[in-house]
Amino acid sequence: MILGVATTLTSTINFSAMVGTVGGGGLGQVTISYGHERYSPIHMVAVIIILFVFVQLIQTALTFIAKRYGRERPKHRTLFSREV
Length: 84
Prior knowledge:
Layout: H1 2-24, H2 27-36, H3 41-69
């Protein structure tokens, strides 16, 4: 469930950036207005880096939480497993 929340949050961030490119505001609009229309590659690169870092932070934090608080699956014995 926690990993599903991580996927949903990162998808929402990505979609909001895409909506900004078509006039919805946000980071997508900053990229289009300053980066593309004013030919400022530093704005485009900055927005890409911000989005990348933000998504990575969310993914890392929620993956850590999922591993920490997720339930352990029972270990199944297979044909080739050995007991130590």
